[in-house]
Fold:
Amino acid sequence: MSVLVTGIGELTTNSDATGDALVLDGERIAWVGSSRRAPAADEHVDVEGRAVLPGWVDSHTHLVFAGDRTAEFGARMAGQPYTAGGIAVTVDATRRATDEELSEVVRKHVAEALRQGTTFVETKTGYGLTVADEVRSARVAAEHADEVTFLGAHLVPPGADADTYVELVRGEMLDAVAPLVRWADVFCEEGAFGHDQAKAVLEAARAKGLGLRVHGNQLGEGPGVRLAVELGAASVDHCTYLSAADVDALASSGTVATLLPACDLSTRQALPPARALLDAGATVALASNCNPGSSYTSSMAFCVATAVLQMRMTVQEAVWAATAGGARALRRDDVGAIRPGARADLHVLDAPSITHLAYRPGVPLTHAVWRGGARVV
Ligand code: NIG
Structure:
């Protein structure tokens, strides 16, 4: 089944393709060009001057969770600092949940994101922290998400000895979870895992054939960014507190700096130095970090608006970071761009240009969404 889309007001492709029309054929984009030379298709949709862009690629979420942390959020808004200690609250609730309950939480949030134009989602384990609970989290994640990351090294479980837990994560837990996931991640931060512990986990994961990601520099200028660059990780996520050396290291590496502005707002941190990263030549992605503790939003449009209004990214940079940047962070070349051969993931805005994403912040602008060639909104 092929679909010809015409009447595109502004087309953002993140590729060499240009035009005001395109054709989807099955799960792929088949053609992009001028409507005057458009090939025939089974169906025709006129988007009447609206902007079309690739579906959002949300490269950082934590959707396998149970429970609620509204009270912690309230305390934070009343002045309490975010310490990541609340992860243990979610671990407790997650362990108590049934497989069906966990699956429903992930399904619901992936569907919520899709309604807002997110057509590709990464999600993580990390609220299980036992071998059985991490395996179950990975299975549930894989039911609904496009990419799954093992985050057994999210927090040392309360009462556990840190070094003993690191040995469990890089040994028995990794052996059990590795066949179910593509990526491994470590929360490398004071209060979570230090440089050597994080490195030990990541090297073991790499030996198992997993790609690497790092949670780094979220709460302070820790060693996460340096470690991610040293190990050639695909991305280092958060990057809220960066030294000049961190910025330079990212700029001369292939590691994507994934910025999570909704998290920084929700935890009342500074916003990440996006301008310094971009000006230095680093590759920047934007992601939601949707999780019940530090960033309970699935809205990539909110992240884009924040990046433009408060982080001095241009609209074009922010949209690229939330589409092609996310794809780069996940080492995918089939999503995040509109070009022949790419997955047919389209986001049509009820607006003539992507500028409206920042010009009209908070307004739901999603008009239509295709995912893998199927119209879902
Ligand atoms: O990316 N930094 C660690 N992990 C999550 C927080 C999870 C939580 O507070 O539950 C994050 O912000």
Remarks:
- The first strand starts at residue 2 and ends at 6.
- The two ends are 18 Å apart (CA to CA).
- Residues 28 and 344 are 5 Å apart (CA to CA).
